[in-house]
Specification:
Layout: E1 4-6, E2 11-13, H1 17-24, H2 28-35, H3 43-56, E3 68-74, H4 81-104, E4 107-113, H5 122-129, E5 135-139, H6 143-155, E6 160-162, E7 176-179, H7 181-194, E8 200-204, H8 210-225, E9 233-237, H9 242-255, E10 261-264, H10 267-279, E11 289-294, E12 307-310, H11 313-329, E13 337-340, E14 343-345
Parallel strand pairs: 3-4, 3-5, 5-6, 7-13, 8-9, 8-10, 10-11, 11-12
Antiparallel strand pairs: 1-2, 12-14
Helix pairs in contact: 1-2, 1-3, 2-3, 3-5, 4-11, 7-8, 9-10
């Protein structure tokens, strides 16, 4: 950290807002507005002030007995109000356990959600530059937003832990705890093949989600290894939201062709597809078998109950939070990588 030297007292001192103003060449009032997250400052000035604050090593001075803070940075971008609501509901599967664990360890949380463009707002820039939190947990694997978070945290010299595997093209090793998405997709494909499916369809997750891409790879590999030809495997582009599953079912009805089995990259698309097929008198599992991914609560309540791949949400969130706090309190700890199993939960939608 670049500290300012107090010559008269012969010791290091923390930089002040006046120091930031002097170094960046802007007024003290402008620096104050930036540091308080005031929206009236032009974006260019905000960036200049925050970069200067980070360069000087400006940090928030905590009050006595004040809890330390962790940031939860959610990567999922949404393009509509309804999708934002769905993404927020899914995020809560992780966030509750993160909250409980953080409180137990003496930390409180701040939250930020991603954007489709993969950009962070000036308030988060300020929080990172001035170290308003001690570390961060990155939830989700949308590539653009995830990369922006990682680069910003690295630049701000803040520790972080991710709830998904790091991309292979990231230079530095990153700590993570993740579910094995590839293995989960493989289990779904093997299960449908073992049940005798000769043709299968995969409702894809978003093309910018690494989790979805891993699930696809595992599914295709299992199908190929269990005797399905490549022309017996078809795909429908989805986005992790229920309407995508509905559209897939409508397309299948329009074409008049049903595969023996359907694997959706998440439960909400599987449920959307299943309900729409049922409205058109398609019997599940007699006419088509369906498998999802996540094991959200709704999966066991739909009729028929949905066969799915289980994500251990509580374990992922708890381990990530505990390991991040250890990393904060013991900065010399080695990179931690934890990969948890994705369990196949068999229910009636696949006919097993």
């Amino acid at each position: 950290m670049n500290m300012l030297i107090n010559v008269k007292r012969g010791r290091y001192t923390m930089p002040t807002l006046r120091d930031i103003a002097s170094r960046s060449g802007v007024s003290l009032s402008t620096v104050s507005r930036v540091m308080n997250g005031h929206p009236s400052v032009a974006p260019g000035l905000v960036t200049k002030v925050l970069e200067t604050a980070a360069e000087l090593g400006y940090e928030k001075t905590p009050r006595n007995n004040e809890k330390q803070t962790l940031a939860v940075l959610v990567t999922w971008p949404s393009t509509s109000e309804s999708q934002t609501q769905r993404d927020s509901q899914f995020a809560m599967m992780f966030l509750h356990s993160i909250y409980v664990t953080a409180e137990r360890l003496g930390y409180h949380l701040v939250f930020h959600f991603g954007t489709e463009e993969g950009k962070i707002n000036s308030f988060l820039q300020w929080q990172i530059a001035t170290k308003q939190f001690q570390g961060a947990i990155i939830v989700g694997s949308y590539l653009a937003m995830e990369r922006t978070y990682v680069e910003s945290l690295q630049k701000g010299d803040l520790p972080f832990f991710r709830l998904s595997k790091a991309p292979t093209d990231f230079n530095a090793p990153h700590s993570y705890v993740a579910v094995d998405d590839y293995a989960g997709g493989y289990k779904a494909g093997r299960h449908l093949a073992d049940l005798g499916a000769k043709s299968v369809l995969h409702i894809l997750g978003p093309s910018n989600s690494r989790d979805a891409l891993e699930r696809k790879k595992g599914f295709v590999k299992a199908c190929e290894e269990h005797g399905l030809r490549s022309d017996a495997i078809s795909f429908f582009q989805g986005d992790f939201h229920e309407p995508a599953g509905e559209k897939c079912a409508q397309e299948l009805i329009r074409r008049g062709e049903l595969p023996d089995g359907i694997f959706a990259a998440n439960d909400m698309m599987a449920i959307g597809c299943m309900r729409t097929l049922q409205k058109h008198s398609v019997r599940i599992p007699a006419d088509v078998r369906i498998v999802g991914f996540d094991n959200i609560m709704l999966a066991s309540y739909v009729e028929p109950a949905l066969t799915t791949i289980q994500i251990p949400f509580d374990d992922l969130a708890r381990v990530a939070t505990e390991e991040l706090v250890k990393q904060i309190e013991c900065p010399l700890r080695k990179t931690t990588r934890v990969l948890l199993d994705a369990e196949l939960i068999v229910r009636k939608s696949c006919g097993a």
